[in-house]
Amino acid sequence: MVHSPDRARRSRFGFTLIELLVVIAIIAILIGLLLPAVQKIREAANRMKCQNNLKQLALACHNYHDTTGALPVAVQMVPSANRTWATGTNFGPNWLVLLLPYFEQDNLFNTQSANINSYMQNGNTAWQAVRGQKINTLLCPSDPGNVQSYAGVGGGWARGNYACNAGGIHGPLVGWTSTEGGASPTNDTGWGGLPTNWHAQGVMCINFGHGVARIPDGSSNTVMLSEVRTGSHLSTLDPRGTWALGYPGASVVCGQSSWDCTVPNTTEENADDCEGCINDAKGGMGAWPGCPYQQAQSRSRHAGGVSVAMADGSVRFVKNTISQAAWWCMNAADDGQVNVN
């Protein structure tokens, strides 16, 4: 039997405009439901990668300790180096430069090994030639600003998201210098309503690296490394998050539980005191413009807190809701307190 063309055309089926719009709406709803889940999974993966970076650096610190008998210093500084202004001064290699051979960066270290190793004898700043090298282990994948270099102090400084803990208090002593050489300042002005007899020795300070077994409060109770955010989205001259620059906010946290810099990711105005910083308190990057290097808080792009590496090498996530007292005790190597909430 032969079918007529008219009958064949009449038997075809298709979508009406309304049906098509319904299908598009359903797809849009499904995408809307899936996107937050995808973003959540991506952030979980980023946080895991960030914590793995911290773990690698903590292991490098311990390997350095096994070789030298102490953790690396936060930064080497000859007597003539300015402790609070980086511009125009001859500051030395920081803890990450010293650690380079211990986390598979031997080639970079070897390009300047003679200058790095001789800095404390001659104050030569030629070691700074390593500053422009981007190192993936030093970058948190959640921080989009770490691709832009720091333009200060000669420019070309690659970014990084990890800092050592120098402890210290802010006022009347300047937080950054209060622990130089392993000094142990006390909270003698009672910042934050905390007891005036609490100490705040650091773990890695100016010209000082603790022995792991000699940390008074114990290595499992004391922060050794933590995250910092880069400040490049505010200004290329904001030094926060600069891996080879051994100053507060760049690769060091200090005084991070005293005065106006109380807890991780604080949104307090003027919290960080770092040369060239831009104040963005609402964005979690409060700073006092015009200040020299004095104080800097642990910060991250992860929702709800920051990742830290304790001095025993373990890695934890500390929530922003931690009390100031507990945060003080986690960062102070010799506070002598237990079970502080």
Catalogue the unreliable spans: none
- How far apart are the first and last residues' alpha carbons, in Å? 89 Å
Radius of gyration: 25 Å
Count of distinct structural domains: 1
Strand neighbour order, sheet with most strands: 5-1-4-6-7
DSSP strand tally: 7
Structural class: alpha+beta
Shape: globular
What is the average per-residue confidence, as pLDDT, rounded to a whole number?
A: 91
Beta-strand content: 5-15%
Helix content: 25-40%
Query: Can you count the helices?
Result: 6
H-E string = HHHHHEEEEEEEH
What kind of sheet is the major sheet?
A: 5 strands, mixed
Describe it:
With 341 residues, this protein is α+β, with helices and mostly antiparallel strands. It has one domain. Helix content is 26%, strand content 8%. It contains six helices and seven strands. The protein has helices at residues 5-10, 17-68, 95-99, 106-111, 113-122, 324-331; strands spanning 162-165, 204-205, 208-209, 223-227, 252-253, 305-310, 315-319. The strands form two sheets. Strands 5-1-4-6-7 form a five-stranded mixed sheet, with helices on one face. It has a two-stranded antiparallel sheet with strand order 2-3. A hairpin with a 4-residue loop joins strand 6 (305-310) and strand 7. It starts with a helix and ends in a 10-residue tail after the last helix. The relative contact order is 0.15.
What labels describe this entry?
single chain; 341 residues; alpha+beta; five-stranded mixed β-sheet; two-stranded antiparallel sheet; 6 helices; globular
